[in-house]
């Protein structure tokens, strides 16, 4: 007899990742890991959840969900020449001790729920009605579907340009202010990651999400990228409602609606190249495909500015430049310089020069 638990099963086991960053990039071979706790804990049996890439080792542990103390002691024998510079667990740096060839460290899994965040390396920029997430990919960390494929450097660069060009567009349309004033959620613009075995995030794409205040029902377009970085099509999902999606054809408008069914804005991937965005009664903006190291923005067919991005992933320095076209009806030119932790993405400094 079928019971509710057969339909709404709850997995009491979590897979939690630990990253061990190498001082010197290279392939040295996986060390043998050991984990001890006063509850059941073991290394995930899936071969893709314990692996080496040039920049780091990654190991997932399987453990029961813990509400109280869940301290785990981990250790391994370092490979010759493969000294460790940092150990990262759920976006936190762990203290570790080195005794001879043995590296040891402790971490606590109490209170952890949902998917592990250890592999997330992004910077979050928040303002009323608008959130920007900048993923910091690196060829020395590529994993999952990207492990054996060509590193998508052009698509990564293109996605960053589209994210920041879209920020300018939604600001000029006053959409963030409208959403904030009416408590209708926020626009969420983000890219994709290339270093996660569980969240494969493939193929390359970027997102323009209208996130409702209550999350469920949020419209989440995934804007996929060709090998040249051009936005090719939009496959849209609904947050909180798995398995439902729709692919919008070229020149077909995807309309965002709020929780009351009212129109907020709309986007369209053009067959001629680029993405259109507008709102009810608003101007029509177009961003070009990523070409010659920049993205160009148009308002009602008139060029109004350009976006250029430089991201120094090794050093954690991100620079975005908006250049207004002469005489254009658009915000003044400015440079935004963000300094972030290159291993976990946390913002350290944020400076805007006009």
Topology:
Blueprint: H1 4-7, E1 13-22, E2 33-36, E3 41-43, E4 50-53, E5 56-64, E6 71-77, E7 84-89, E8 92-94, E9 96-99, E10 102-108, E11 122-127, E12 130-135, H2 153-172, H3 175-181, E13 186-190, E14 205-211, E15 219-225, E16 231-238, E17 245-248, E18 253-257, E19 263-269, E20 275-278, E21 285-287, E22 295-299, E23 302-312, E24 317-324, E25 334-340, E26 347-353
Parallel strand pairs: 12-13
Antiparallel strand pairs: 1-5, 1-7, 2-6, 3-5, 4-5, 6-10, 7-8, 9-10, 11-12, 13-14, 14-15, 15-16, 16-17, 18-19, 19-20, 20-21, 21-22, 22-23, 23-24, 24-25, 25-26
Description of the molecule:
With 354 residues, the chain is mainly β. The protein has three helices and 26 strands. It has helices spanning 4-7, 153-172, 175-181, and strands spanning 13-22, 33-36, 41-43, 50-53, 56-64, 71-77, 84-89, 92-94, 96-99, 102-108, 122-127, 130-135, 186-190, 205-211, 219-225, 231-238, 245-248, 253-257, 263-269, 275-278, 285-287, 295-299, 302-312, 317-324, 334-340, 347-353. The chain has a nine-stranded antiparallel beta sheet, with helices on one face. The protein has a seven-stranded mixed beta sheet with strand order 11-12-13-14-15-16-17. Strand 7 (84-89) and strand 8 (92-94) form a beta hairpin. The longest helix is centred in the middle third of the chain and has 20 residues, at 153-172. It is globular, with a radius of gyration of 22 Å. The relative contact order is 0.11. The mean pLDDT is 96.
